[in-house]
Amino acid sequence: MDESPLEQQSQSHDQENEIVTEGSAFVDGEPPSQDGSVPPKVDSQVEVLDEKVSKQIIKEGHGSKPSKYSTCFLHYRAWTKHTQHKFEDTWQEQQPIELVLGKEKKEMTGLAMGVASMKSGERALLHIGWELGYGKDGNFSFPNVPPMADLLYEVEVIGFDETKEGKARSDMTVEERIGAADRRKMDGNNLFKEDKLEEAMQQYEMAIAYMGDDFMFQLYGKYQDMALAVKNPCHLNMAACLIKLKRYDEAIGHCNIVLTEEEKNPKALFRRGKAKAELGQMDSAREDFRKAQKYAPDDNAIRRELRAIAEQEKAVYQKQKEMYKGIFGGGRDESGVKAKSRNGLIMLWQWLVSLFSRILGRKRVKAD
Hints:
Layout: H1 7-10, E1 18-20, E2 25-26, E3 46-50, E4 53-60, E5 71-80, E6 86-89, H2 90-93, E7 97-100, H3 109-116, E8 123-128, E9 151-162, H4 174-193, H5 197-210, H6 213-216, H7 221-244, H8 248-261, H9 266-278, H10 282-295, H11 300-328, H12 339-367
Helix pairs in contact: 4-5, 4-7, 5-7, 7-8, 7-9, 8-9, 9-10, 10-11
């Protein structure tokens, strides 16, 4: 997997933070809805966490639950319960958020209570009363939530750090944030080598959470280069995992993020091409591979993919040729009439059609 310049440095960092990520299984073996426009329908048992907070598990998690001041990394979609208006979706941004339990914003109180009851890898539907959400007045900026609105959250806990002080990203120095992200990238790389793809993606997503847009916009010069040297490989490694899991559209999304920063990145072009080829988008895939080859002319993997596309197209052409040969070529048809005679009839028919068209054309000229 990809390595960053901080690989050596991060090995000497304090290992006080325990990174917790576990495998998981869907309740009743069913994956969650991929649409996300409306809240998922969940039939699992309702667990009451508080008078105003309840939970239904969608996907089981494993391991321990986060304690107070744990830094949790999660994705969620949020709706108003009665109108089912979706007002927030972190999956669309492809950047998980960070929530430090015990230090959350007031409107996140109910969400934090739900997250505190969840294990790594767990996905759940939370029902939250307005008193523990956006309150009596609601919120009229972003996100737009009406007054006294009960909420629904579809939440997935990617993982969490057990820290004594609950240090948030905003309280870290630039070096600390980049170093923390780099450690997670390396953990993800080790999991990838063991073919633990879901667990590897958890680590990459936590690393990406440290490199959010609000942070990246503040960087320039060497710090920007250091951050991109961690962030972009995490997106590329996510793409590699997603291709293996046959989630090609998501893989393309991560490659696109890298290409907005580095339009000449051959690895991003190559992996996007791979995903497009699997989706049958051959012309677009070939274009990506050719661009990748321009920036990495000695890469054998790119040559193989271009050769595979050429061979596939050749096979399709041969198949079409055989098909047309069967229609118009030699041999006898079922009635014993030679195909040559049939071809003559076709040519006669085409001549008659042409003659009729010319006659009709002359009549039109005279009428004009």
